[in-house]
Structures are given as C-alpha cells and as structure tokens.
Amino acid sequence: MKILSIGQFYPMPDRSAGDRRFFQLLRILLRHHDVSFCARTDLSWQRSLVGDTRLAEYRDALTAMGVRIMDDGAVSAVRSAAYDAVLFEFYHSAESLIDDVRFSQPRARIIVDSVDVAYNRLDSKARVTKAPGDIATARAVKRTELAVYNKADLVITVTEEDRSLLLQELKHLRVEIVPTMHDVSPLDDTVQRRPHSLVFVGSFLHEPNIDAMVYFCNDVLPLVTSEIPDATLDIVGSFPTQSIKALARDGVEVIGFVPDVKPYLDSSYVSIAPLRYGGGMKGKIGEAMAHGLPVVTTTIGIEGFGLTPSANVLIGDSPEEFAKLTCDLLRDAALYEMIRRNGWSFIKERFSEEAVADRVDIIFSRLTDGPVKRLALGNYLRRAVPQQLHRHLLWRFREPARSKAGDS
Predict the structure, then answer these.
(1) According to the model, what pLDDT value does residue 317 have?
(2) CA-CA-CA-CA dihedral for 247, 251, 257, 259, to nearest 10
(3) What is the mean pLDDT of residues 280-298?
(4) From residue 328, how far is each of 19, 310, 355 by CA, in Å?
(5) How many angstroms separate the CA atoms of 106 and 375, rounded?
(6) What is the pLDDT of residue 128?
(7) What angle do the packed helices 17-29 and 283-290 form, to 10 degrees?
(8) Which of 105, 188, 284, 324 has the most CB atoms in a 10 Å sphere around its CB?
(9) Which residues on neighbouring strands pair with residue 3, listed in sequence order?
C-alpha cells in the first residue's frame, strides 16, 4: 500500500510521547507499506525551537527508516502521486487539507490519528478552571474536530475511552485504537536508585504538564517534605517555560531537555504524574513503568491504560492523598516492589511496540473494507470548476501573452 503521512512537523521522538508514538507508527507501517511524509507547515517554528542541525537529524531519522520525505509542501505532496491512503497526525493537520486530499485522491482512504481527542482534553481543563474562556474554547474545538473526523474514512484513537467518546457523537464513524508504545527494559534489580528521589518527565509544550508541575510543587511537595525532609524532585522535559524554571529551589532541579531520559528513570526512586486535566494515554506513565519505576498519578493520569489502583499504580486526586501515597512508596519497601513489578509486567504485556504492531497490521489490512467517502458536491464544484475553466478556456487568454513575450 502507498501511504502519504502528513504531520505538523518532523516527529521529535526524544522530546514528546506523542511524537515518539507517531514515529513508531511510521516504523511499523514501513514493514509492509511504502510510506512518504510531508510536514503541514514550513518548519520555521520547529527550526526556531531546535535549530538547523537538530532539524536535519529529525529528518534524517525518517529517511534512515525508509520514509520518503516530500519537502515541497503538503498541497504539492498530495497532488504528486496516487496514494492508497493518506494519514494525518492530529485533526488540525487535516482541517485545511482534507477536502483537497479528497478531491485530488478520490480513491485514497483518509485516516486521522487523533493522538488525543483535543476537545476532551480541553473539556477536562475547563472543569478544573471553570473559566468561561476555557469552556468556550472546548466547545469551538469540539465542533471543528468532529467535523474533520466525520469526513475521514478512519479515525485512530489511543484509548477505548476516546473511541467511545467519538462514537457517542458520530455513531457511524469508523474508529480503531493504536495505543502509546514503549520500549520495555528488563527489570533490573541491581540498579542503584537514589533514596527519596522523585522524577517527572514531560514536554512543556503540553499545557497539562505545566499545570501538573506548578500544582505539585506548590500544593503537594511541601506535604511530602514535611514528612521526608530530604525528598528531591528532578523535572525533566523539553521547552520548560519561565513558570517551570521558577520552580527550581533547594531539592527541586529543573533539568530541561535531555537526549535520553533513561539515566533519570534508572536512578530515580519514584515517578510522579500529578495531572489535573488532559486526554488520551499519558506516555510518561507507561515509560516510567517500562523502566521499572513505580508511579503515583491521578485518575486523569491513568485514563486509557486499564491499570488497577493499588495493584500496579497509586492514585491520589487531592494534594493530601498524593503526598501520602508518595511517602508510602518512599518508605514501604514491600509496597514499592509490588507496585513497580506489577506496573512493569502490565506495560510489557500490552504496550510494547511488538504487541501493538500486530494490531496496526490488522487495521491496515482491513482498510479497504467498505466504500471510500466522497467529497460533498459543493466542495467538489468549488475545486472542479476553476480547474476546468483553466484547462479549457483561460489558457487561451494566456497563450498570446506567452507568444508575444517569446517574439520580443
């Protein structure tokens, strides 16, 4: 199958869980399909964040896997060849292009990978802030996001909860699940972890991560250090904002971006994910468990996993609960071993790349089941009429001008 994938920019798998998942998805597809990639934007924003050298490295990582890069823009890429499928990363990558794809590629299946359902994440935020602006934003995004999904032949979600949410709104939508994937390290009992050390890993381009760290440092950590004075926290993640940098203090270090988080996951004692809102599957939780770290998080944090509180993860939705459970893990060796071993086993069995690859193969083997959706007549005419006018009429008025220029 010939697949064109369209993302916001080159995936940065070392900087966010979402980018890592999309990169892994492309790698899985390459096993059986011909895959091309183009960025929806001109990459100036990504270049400003990471610089020319790192940008080239992200591009080279795709080509090294066998992905064909289309650098002449998304519209040009869409019209450059006949594709069997066009895969969009995020609904907003598809929003301005999906009708053009349907017009130029009438036989191609259009797939939108939701990554997380944006309006659900924004609804979650609005429930916390209760701000009228946040409520209005969530409603507006919902209308736009659902309109895009309704035009697609297939929507991919990362969780069953997201799938059910979409089917409540669009009952006839075709939805499949491709969860977050993890490289699962062997469970090593010889690793020397720093006692009483906490770690948080997450990109600060993602607003829920900013809120989580400000909340934890202001409301939870003081309760922890009142019980365990030498408790420390490393905040690891790309693009820390000023509000995150301001959290640095005695016992709290803002590390920022690191090319490999493994040393921090291998040396820390407990992973925290104090998320108060969000959507989809939280990669930071699965990643920590895959490295044999026990996790304390919130009800929001475990959405989509199927984890069992007090069996393979600990859940605290108030500052007091979160602090108590964190202290319990730091002090109770038996509880520590049970949670970390059960969490590691859970991720290995369900969310390794090998386990998810089989699901992806099945989804794409069934992609051609059923008819391809058609472009609405009005949208079709808006594109077809100017094209036909140019082909059969307007060129005649331009030809004399070209001939005259050639004679001069």
Answers:
(1) 97
(2) -170
(3) 93
(4) 34, 12, 33
(5) 8
(6) 92
(7) 80
(8) 284
(9) 35, 85
Structural domains of the chain sorted by starting position, each given as residue range(s) with its CATH number in brackets: 2-181+356-375 (3.40.50.2000), 197-351 (3.40.50.2000), 378-408 (no CATH)
Q: With CA atoms as reference, report the closest residue to 111 among 58, 178, 42.
A: 178
Nearest-angstrom CA–CA distance, 258 and 153: 38
Residue 274, number of CB atoms within 10 A of its CB: 27
What are the Cα distances from residue 213, in Å, to 209, 236, 275, 332?
6, 11, 8, 25
- Which percentage of the chain shows pLDDT scores above 90? 77
pTM over 0.70: yes
Name the 3-class secondary structure at 81. coil
- Summarize the confidence of residues 261-270 as an average pLDDT: 94
Residue 157 in tokens: 């979600």
- Looking only at the bridges linking them, the beta strands covering 295-297 and 154-157 are unpaired
Amino acid at site 261: V
